[in-house]
């Protein structure tokens, strides 16, 4: 195994002292760094994991992260320069779709709220994909109203750690995960948002029981997770005791960006698949389907341009409120387009590829056949915040409409009706 | 399916400044309230406002190169002006003169004085022009041959936007494109009562009208087609501005109006509708900016970008105006409240320069998604 090019310790020191002068890191400088990496670690002869570790240590993993933590403190907009140069050089990637929860949610939360030790311990194997992460948030009694969660964390005898008991549900990838980001209640006497603490849960702890939960597609992408006397050292707490909700907001904000904010070329995703079928099989066409297809094509192109615009704003460091809208738009589009596709396929649409219970390694919304896409897309308006809840958020936070009257915000959690 | 090079979908600083200047002018002149008063005068447009906007600020010449007497800007800047004009439903002949007529002239041989002369006059806003085609004409659908003749033109064109109040009419005829002075003998411009009170419509009747040839038939056809494409693409920005006003006004109103002991805007049924409208407007902005940028850069993707913007923004503006009326309750139904001006403009704009359905049919051809055979 090749040694790191920058030691994490040096990197952290550089990050504390202000890091690299970001203005010096233009696209050319980054391309040079990529070239250096490709020279010292020829992808053709270097083990995949060794290469990924070296890339992380060279600060080329996520360049907007600080030095020593896989980045260079460079503008996020330049990441695509790095990615393109690495791809052109035949470098392996970290299979980002396999580790979406780690990359999209755990990492930004660790960066923002983690201690130096936590960031150094967790970020590197997270990014390389050596350690998969899952999100232990939702519970049978707490979904949209996540802050109502009932999983308890109590100080263990010595006071140097925590004991966790409770049940989580809909936990995607828990069957693969080494770590879980966990929300647990540490003070039931406080109002619900204030008594929560955020932890990193070791999924190999003997008290963690992961059971597959089969979904409408036939597979079990998510799980039920039973937590019984799970021990979590206090060093695996993220943020202050009782501050879990604020920490969770970082995670949830990034979840929506991760789900909705991706850049897409024209006719990629679902619309491209149905357009291909349309072109290949003229005998399936009807006037009604034609009108609906054209409408959806326009909507998909409009959504693509909106995502493009959002991406530009993010790259310039002016994130717009558009992000929260993208997830909504894509959920609706995925559902309507896949529904149209099954209908277009007519006789073929009556079949389904395979109902076998599998526990997939990654989620591919556009994978498999039209029937699968149609069923899987139903989750798009539920996972990561339901469409109804997102509409509430847009109405109140973006448009500034007055909130609904609420009775649950200030009462002690233990007194709330359940 | 090829994806075009990434367009610039944001607003530049210059564009922001231009917007601020236009908005402040329109606000000073009384905004939508003034638009209602103006509509009731029966004049085709407010000449003072036009002078300030077109000549004073130089917006009439944005699309015209400096050497031809314009500002040498692009469709991107004109789009920003149109957003603001949509937001205030101002009755000024910007789309019809500074976009459609100007763009038609730019498609002719500008080295010829018969072209350059009227172009410079339209560009500095001292004269107003109109392209004499029916307002519903979609890009690619320009009717030719309804008007006949050479030096003396005869024929009739219905539903010409901005003809009333125009000084010069650009008339596509069987033998080419002509300039006709609106006051010349043999020219009758008969206003018709429009649904949209802020954009005059007229029937143009020519009986042996004296005309100046601007372009031979082939060139005329491309000039008109190009003008219609530009007009349709930029109309999307007007529709965007219009929709934005409707949303902002409705959010303001429902946030303050109390029923059942709470602001009506706190009811989730209304919140969800307004949030959904916001989302539509966010994507309308992306498509309108995309069309404006494609027109500005001469992108090979322009026809697709315009058709997408029109198919999308036409519907969004109508929905925004309809929601605005509905969520205002009774007051939204009154003549006094400006919501109806927006509804009427939105509904007319939906028909102008091709309905959304027509633009979708265009797309079917452009992106190879043909309908069933037969
Ligand atoms: C495929 C998939 C993967 C998932 N993966 C994970 C994961 O990895 N980790 C994790 O922690 N969670 C995960 N989830 C859980 C997901 O976040 C929740 O399902 C979601 O937040 C909704 O909660 P709920 O299921 O309890 O529904 P509920 O909150 O009970 O909602 C029921 C219905 O009521 C509506 N509703 C609720 N509140 C309101 C309101 N205030 N206004 C209007 N309507 C409202 C909802 O929109 C919904 O239609 C996953 C879910 C799915 C479908």
TrEMBL record, chain A:
The Acyl-CoA oxidase/dehydrogenase middle domain is annotated at 134-220
Q: Name one GO cellular component term.
A: plasma membrane
A GO molecular-function term, please? flavin adenine dinucleotide binding
According to the record, the residues making up region (Disordered) are 1-20
The cofactor required is: FAD
Q: Does the keyword Transmembrane apply?
A: no
UniProt-listed Gene3D superfamilies? Acyl-CoA dehydrogenase/oxidase, N-terminal domain, Butyryl-CoA Dehydrogenase, subunit A, domain 2, Butyryl-CoA Dehydrogenase, subunit A, domain 3
Q: Where does the Acyl-CoA dehydrogenase/oxidase C-terminal domain lie?
A: 242-399
Q: What keywords are assigned to this protein?
A: FAD, Flavoprotein, Oxidoreductase
Q: Which residues form the Acyl-CoA dehydrogenase/oxidase N-terminal domain?
A: 31-130
Pfam families per UniProt: Acyl-CoA_dh_1, Acyl-CoA_dh_M, Acyl-CoA_dh_N
The record ties this protein, via InterPro entries, to: Acyl-CoA_Oxase/DH_mid-dom, Acyl-CoA_Oxase/DH_mid-dom_sf, AcylCo_DH-like_C, AcylCo_DH/oxidase_C, AcylCoA_DH/ox_N, AcylCoA_DH/ox_N_sf, AcylCoA_DH/oxidase_NM_dom_sf, Mycobact_Acyl-CoA_DH
By sequence similarity, the record places it as follows: Belongs to the acyl-CoA dehydrogenase family.
What PANTHER family does UniProt report for this protein, alphabetically? ACYL-COA DEHYDROGENASE, ACYL-COA DEHYDROGENASE FADE34
Q: What is this protein called?
A: Alkylation response protein AidB-like acyl-CoA dehydrogenase
Which species does the entry assign this protein to? Streptomyces netropsis
Q: What is the lineage of its organism?
A: Bacteria, Bacillati, Actinomycetota, Actinomycetes, Kitasatosporales
UniProtKB/TrEMBL annotation, chain B:
Q: Which residues form the Acyl-CoA dehydrogenase/oxidase N-terminal domain?
A: 12-98
Q: Which Gene3D superfamilies match?
A: Acyl-CoA dehydrogenase/oxidase, N-terminal domain (1.10.540.10), Butyryl-CoA Dehydrogenase, subunit A, domain 2 (2.40.110.10), Butyryl-CoA Dehydrogenase, subunit A, domain 3 (1.20.140.10)
Domain of life, per the record?
Bacteria
The protein's required cofactor(s) are namely:
FAD
Acyl-CoA dehydrogenase/oxidase C-terminal domain span: 226-365
> Do you know which InterPro entries this protein is assigned to?
Acyl-CoA_Oxase/DH_mid-dom_sf (IPR046373), AcylCo_DH-like_C (IPR036250), AcylCo_DH/oxidase_C (IPR009075), AcylCoA_DH/ox_N (IPR013786), AcylCoA_DH/ox_N_sf (IPR037069), AcylCoA_DH/oxidase_NM_dom_sf (IPR009100)
Keywords, alphabetical: FAD, Flavoprotein, Oxidoreductase
Q: Which GO terms describe its molecular function?
A: acyl-CoA dehydrogenase activity; flavin adenine dinucleotide binding
One Pfam family of this chain: Acyl-CoA_dh_1
Presence of keyword Signal: no
The entry sums up its family as follows: Belongs to the acyl-CoA dehydrogenase family.
Its name, as the record gives it, is Alkylation response protein AidB-like acyl-CoA dehydrogenase
């Amino acid at each position: 195994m090749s040694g790191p090019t920058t030691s994490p310790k040096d990197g952290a020191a550089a990050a504390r002292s202000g890091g690299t002068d970001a203005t010096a890191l233009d696209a050319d400088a980054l391309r040079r760094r990529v070239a250096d990496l490709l020279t010292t670690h020829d992808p053709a002869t270097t083990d995949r994991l060794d290469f990924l570790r070296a890339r992380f240590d060279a600060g080329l993993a996520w360049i907007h992260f600080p030095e020593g933590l896989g980045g260079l403190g460079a503008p996020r907009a330049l990441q695509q320069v790095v990615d393109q140069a690495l791809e052109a050089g035949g470098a392996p990637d970290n299979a980002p779709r396999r580790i979406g929860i780690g990359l999209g949610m755990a990492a930004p939360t660790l960066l923002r709220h983690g201690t130096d030790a936590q960031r150094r311990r967790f970020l590197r194997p997270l990014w390389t994909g050596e350690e998969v992460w899952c999100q232990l948030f939702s519970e049978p009694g707490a979904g949209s109203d996540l802050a109502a969660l009932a999983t308890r964390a109590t100080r263990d005898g010595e006071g140097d750690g925590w004991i966790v008991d409770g049940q989580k549900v809909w936990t995607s990838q828990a069957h693969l995960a080494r770590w879980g980001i966990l929300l647990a209640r540490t003070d039931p006497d406080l109002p619900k948002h204030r008594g929560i603490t955020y932890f990193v849960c070791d999924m190999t702890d003997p008290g963690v029981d992961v059971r597959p939960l089969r979904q409408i597609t036939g597979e079990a992408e998510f799980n039920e997770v039973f937590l019984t006397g799970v021990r979590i050292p206090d060093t695996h707490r993220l943020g202050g005791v009782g501050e879990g909700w604020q920490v969770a907001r970082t995670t949830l904000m990034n979840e929506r960006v991760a789900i909705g904010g991706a850049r897409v070329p024209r006719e990629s995703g679902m619309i491209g698949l149905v357009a291909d079928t349309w072109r290949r099989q003229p005998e399936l066409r009807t006037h009604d389907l034609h009108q609906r297809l054209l409408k959806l094509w326009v909507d998909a192109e409009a959504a693509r341009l909106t995502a493009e615009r959002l991406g530009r704003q993010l790259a310039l460091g002016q994130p717009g409120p558009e992000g929260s809208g993208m997830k909504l738009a894509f959920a609706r589009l995925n559902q309507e387009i896949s529904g149209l596709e099954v209908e277009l396929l007519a006789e073929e649409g009556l079949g389904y590829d395979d109902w076998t219970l599998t526990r997939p390694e990654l989620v591919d919304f556009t994978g498999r056949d039209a029937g699968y896409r149609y069923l899987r897309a139903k989750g798009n308006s539920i996972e990561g915040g339901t469409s109804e809840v997102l509409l509430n958020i847009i109405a109140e936070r973006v448009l500034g409409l007055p909130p609904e009257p609420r009775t649950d915000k200030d009462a002690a959690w233990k007194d709330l009706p359940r | 399916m090829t994806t075009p090079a990434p367009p610039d979908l944001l607003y530049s600083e210059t564009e922001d400044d231009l917007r601020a200047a236009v908005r402040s002018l329109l606000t000073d002149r009384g905004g939508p309230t003034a638009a209602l008063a103006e509509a009731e005068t029966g004049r085709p447009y407010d000449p003072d406002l036009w002078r300030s906007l077109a000549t004073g600020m130089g917006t009439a010449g944005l699309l015209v190169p400096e050497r031809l007497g314009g500002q040498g800007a692009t469709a991107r800047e004109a789009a920003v002006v149109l957003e603001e004009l949509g937001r205030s439903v101002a009755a000024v002949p910007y789309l019809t003169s500074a976009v459609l007529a100007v763009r038609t002239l730019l498609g002719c041989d500008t080295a010829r004085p018969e072209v350059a002369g009227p172009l410079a006059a339209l560009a500095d806003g001292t004269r107003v022009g109109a392209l004499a085609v029916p307002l519903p004409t979609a890009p690619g659908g320009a009717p030719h041959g309804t008007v006949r003749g050479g030096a003396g033109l005869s024929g009739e064109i219905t539903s010409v936007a901005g003809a009333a109040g125009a000084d010069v009419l650009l008339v596509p005829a069987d033998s080419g494109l002509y300039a006709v002075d609106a006051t010349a003998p043999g020219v009758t411009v008969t206003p018709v009562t429009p649904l949209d009170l802020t954009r005059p419509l007229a029937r143009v009747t020519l009986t042996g009208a004296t005309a100046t040839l601007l372009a031979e038939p082939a060139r005329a056809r491309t000039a008109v087609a190009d003008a219609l494409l530009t007009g349709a693409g930029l109309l999307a920005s007007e529709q965007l501005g219009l929709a934005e006003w409707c949303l902002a006004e409705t959010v303001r109103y429902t946030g303050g109006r109390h029923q059942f002991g709470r602001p009506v805007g706190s009811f989730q049924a209304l919140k969800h509708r307004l949030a959904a409208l916001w989302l539509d407007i966010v994507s309308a902005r992306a498509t309108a900016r995309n069309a404006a940028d494609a027109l500005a850069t001469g992108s090979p993707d322009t026809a697709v970008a315009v058709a997408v913007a029109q198919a999308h923004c036409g519907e969004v503006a109508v929905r925004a105006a309809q929601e605005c009326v509905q969520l205002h309750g009774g007051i939204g139904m009154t003549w006094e409240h400006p919501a109806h001006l927006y509804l009427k403009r939105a509904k007319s704009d939906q028909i102008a320069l091709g309905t959304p359905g027509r633009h979708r049919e265009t797309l079917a051809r452009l992106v190879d998604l043909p309908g069933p055979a037969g």
